[in-house]
Design a protein that fits this description.
alpha/beta; Alkaline Phosphatase, subunit A; two-stranded antiparallel sheet; 15 helices
Length: 406
Amino acid sequence: MPLGLNKLKHIVVVMMENRSFDHMLGGLKATDPRIAGLTGDEFNLGTDGKKVKVKSNAAYQGQLDPDPDHHFAGVDLQIFGGNMANDRPATMDGFVKSYHAQRRDLAHSRLVMSYYKPSKLPVLTTLAQQYAVFNGWFSSIPGPTLCNRAFAHYGTSFGHVGMNVFYLNTIYRSVYQRLDDAGKTAKIYYFDQKSSTLEVVNLLQHQPKFFGLFDQFVADCAANTLPAFSFVEPNYSDHEENGIPLMASDQHPDHDVREGERLLAHVYNAIRSNPQVWESTALLITYDEHGGIYDHVPPPACDPDGFVAQPADTGTGKPFLFDRLGVRVPAVLVSPWIAPGTVVPGVGEADARIFEHASIPRTVTDFFLPGFPPASRSPRERAAEAFTDLLTLDQMRTDTPTFTLL
């Protein structure tokens, strides 16, 4: 077993909001052709029939207003272009059409094809280049936030494809409950009381032992008291705390993306600044779903989840069998035991590996609870890839980057 896996004691996940892989990391293909990003020739047709090519003009804020559609029916249109046939291919050509439907503005609809120059996202770009970037990490459902985040906590959404808050049929225990049952520790760190964690407060039935504030995460890193598994949530809203304005850091359109960059740097620095924590922690950064923003890679089919969403819930006139993934999202794994420049191959590549949010409970449970009963996990979680095998080095790196927080 590689030394990095022998040292591993903590897995930390930061889940940001509503950005696609191509939008955030697609520009990296220009400097590293192994990264499944953009050539610049990818396009959708506008509602005027003209090609709308991808363009490296993404702005930090003020561009994606209104928020692009990412409810199930809208994502279906984005992936399949409006084709409702049973054997329809995933063409990824409905993004501009979908965005145009929201404001009926031809010029504005083209902005959903925008992506960032790598230099505009120095934190995410640096982490992707210096550690491991996943070419094939997909949201779990072609739909919105809450059902996708449920996959990160439970390995399933129990048949939900929308923004339901209360789940009554949680036949599988959350990863936090599993660890707690085995005498191990787990915690969800959310930003503050005014930007509370999203669905999990309700999904976990207000179990306070699983929750802490972001300041406690930083303190736990400094004191080497991190739990086995940590899930870090951003600030979801612009608000004031004791008269001090605080900006949303979730990167949800149309929040300022730079504030999310600062959050990622803060989390990374907190882990890296304590040598004991740094050598024993793997940090995964990913996004709950694509937020309606263009990505060129068709989501692959997957093992059905054992649940069915009815036509009334999908809004498409069709049921959903949970047999395909949602749109691809950024994902980066950070550890001093990962070789710099690691690229995990995705769809259509040799040795392809397909990840989704069910990979999170799969990985955490496999690593900390070996022998956990397969029947106590959802079919999707059982089929999901785990990622701890990417800690391949036998000697800890000393060339890792640091960030200055402004």
